[in-house]
Amino acid sequence: MCTWQLQIATEKSFVCTIANQSQNITQRVYTINNHELAHVNCIRDLGVTIDRNLKFNQHINLIIHKAMSRAFLILKSFSSRDRLLMVKAYCTYIYTEKNPEEGCSVINNTVVVIISRMSDILKPKKENIENNSNDDEIKKTKINENGRSPKRKVDLTDSYHDEYQYLNLVKRIIETGYSKADRTGTGTLSIFGGQMRFNLRESFPLLTTKRVFWKGVVEELLWFISGSTDGNILAQKGVQIWNSNGTREFLDKCNLHHREVGDLGPIYGFQWRHFGAKYVDKHADYTGQGIDQLAQIIHTIKTNPDDRRMIMSAWNPVDIPLMALPPCHSFCQFYVANGELSCQMYQRSCDMGLGIPFNIASYSLLTYIIAHVCNLKVMIIIGIKMII
């Protein structure tokens, strides 16, 4: 029975040592980029149980998924530098028959993933190579039974995954944010001008450390694109995120006594599709009125992709008094390069716990939709925000 011991050298390269469980592991030394890789003890066996009847070649995705889910928990205990170098390479090997070309049946019902700290196995071969592994700090840190280090303060600023940008901003606000009063009377901790960049080539940035109401993201965006200002349409689809802004009480507080319940005024969708048109109510037909910014952007992308004026604004000072809620994500700009579409969105005010994860997903989806219509690929989405 054999295990594959995974030893990480760099982000995209790794060394595997086959070892027999009944014998001592033979120590081998590998050199990559002038760094010496020496055998070290593993932190923890994951011991993921799988069905003995699963075939390696037929069920590899399921088998690896089970092991990766457990491995991810262990990765949380590593320092940001270690995690950066290990995140791409953990958990890719399992128990298999000696001859993988003959069916690759799993011969044991346990998947073992052995993970080693990067700072334990990566040592400078030459004295003039700086060792940034913080070995002294790591030696003082004890890993508990759950593979976590509760006393260790983990710095997330260099972590690999895009989602850590969100966690970093939350951390930054808590630690350095200014205490300010606000319209609701709740009070805030805030910073000004935070920024995040998400690579849409690699994945869709739907955050996993914060549950995101995906149905709400999709339905609201389609509602914006339609130009509708009727909150009841969303509510009928089970999306009630605008309900409180369309109540009689709320509209009266906004001095919109004449406004029908659910009529939110010339908000996002109206500005996207009818900027400059005179707003009457949610029932009026605005076809051909105002400027259809969304249609203009799509036309410009198709006809003049190098244009630097592909901006869509929801911020219309003339209409703000008529809105149930002024736009938080105020405007966005699109950019085309090498057949790829990027979007940069500015948000004047945003709730880090609720609004930001929602808006990241929403503008990413909008970028995907426009790219599809214009026969482009997606590149990045950038959010520049005043964080509240």
Automatic annotation (TrEMBL):
Record's protein name: Thymidylate synthase
Biased composition (Basic and acidic residues): 136-145
Family the UniProt entry places it in: Belongs to the thymidylate synthase family.
Keywords assigned: Membrane, Methyltransferase, Nucleotide biosynthesis, Transferase, Transmembrane, Transmembrane helix
PROSITE patterns documented for this protein: THYMIDYLATE_SYNTHASE
Region (Disordered): 128-154
Reactions the enzyme catalyzes: dUMP + (6R)-5,10-methylene-5,6,7,8-tetrahydrofolate = 7,8-dihydrofolate + dTMP
Domain Thymidylate synthase/dCMP hydroxymethylase residues, every copy: 165-380
Transmembrane parts of this sequence: 365-384
Annotated pathway: Pyrimidine metabolism; dTTP biosynthesis
GO biological process entries: dTMP biosynthetic process; dTTP biosynthetic process; methylation
GO-annotated cellular components: cytosol; mitochondrion
Active site: 328
Organism encoding this protein: Hydra vulgaris (Hydra)
Enzyme Commission no: 2.1.1.45
Single GO molecular function: thymidylate synthase activity
